[in-house]
Design a protein that fits this description.
The structure is a single chain. By secondary structure, the chain is an alpha+beta fold. The protein has two domains: about 100 residues, no CATH class; about 60 residues, no CATH class. It has six helices and seven strands, in the order αααββααββββαβ. Strands 3, 4, 5, 6 and 7 form a five-stranded antiparallel sheet that branches. The protein has a two-stranded antiparallel sheet with strand order 1-2. Helix 2 crosses helix 5 and helix 3 crosses helix 5. The longest helix has 26 residues. It is globular and about 55 Å long.
């Protein structure tokens, strides 16, 4: 969300990964309720201050979000309540973006704690089932035709689905 303005302003100079991220971001934003969209806009778009600038092209690449306390009065809530509203809106955006990814991804991997990827499942389907974790390059690739039951089970264990681009395979 900190790159929202950058994605809009620099759309002609985005590299392929940034373009993909921007596309997923904006498609996710379209799925938000108007109240979530307004709240996130107030925090990350309308009044946010520049944070970093790309020296090559001069575009502001990220912003500092507006502090919760400053927007709480606009929403007629305490700073703590506003923080919860913001967190919920962010979670809703994350879920919407994940839906977009799930719809467009042909292949994906499972990760936990942002750094550990599912490499293998040992003794699958038994009480002794174990999960082998490793680096992204060793991660087991799943397809959209794989078991939804297994996907639900892995998500309940804290794994998240991460799409894999065809050129990265």
């Amino acid at each position: 969300m900190r790159k929202w303005k950058y994605y809009e302003a620099a759309r002609e100079v985005l590299d392929p990964i940034e373009l993909e991220n921007a596309t997923i971001f904006f498609h996710g934003m379209k799925r938000l309720s108007q109240s979530d969209l307004n709240l996130l806009s107030d925090v990350y778009y309308k009044n946010a201050k520049p944070c970093t600038v790309d020296r090559k092209n001069g575009y502001m690449t990220s912003v500092k979000p507006v502090k919760n306390g400053l927007l709480a009065s606009k929403y007629h809530v305490s700073a703590i309540q506003f923080k919860e509203l913001r967190k919920q809106a962010q979670e809703n955006l994350k879920a919407a973006m994940q839906e977009v990814l799930d719809e467009i991804a042909l292949y994906f991997v499972y990760r936990i704690n942002r750094n550990l990827y599912l490499v293998d499942i040992v003794e699958r389907g038994t009480r002794k089932e174990k999960y082998v974790l490793g680096e992204e390059c060793d991660a087991k690739k799943f397809g959209s035709s794989d078991s939804e039951q297994e996907a639900s089970h892995l998500k309940s264990l804290g794994f998240e689905r991460v799409p894999v681009n065809e050129e990265r395979q």
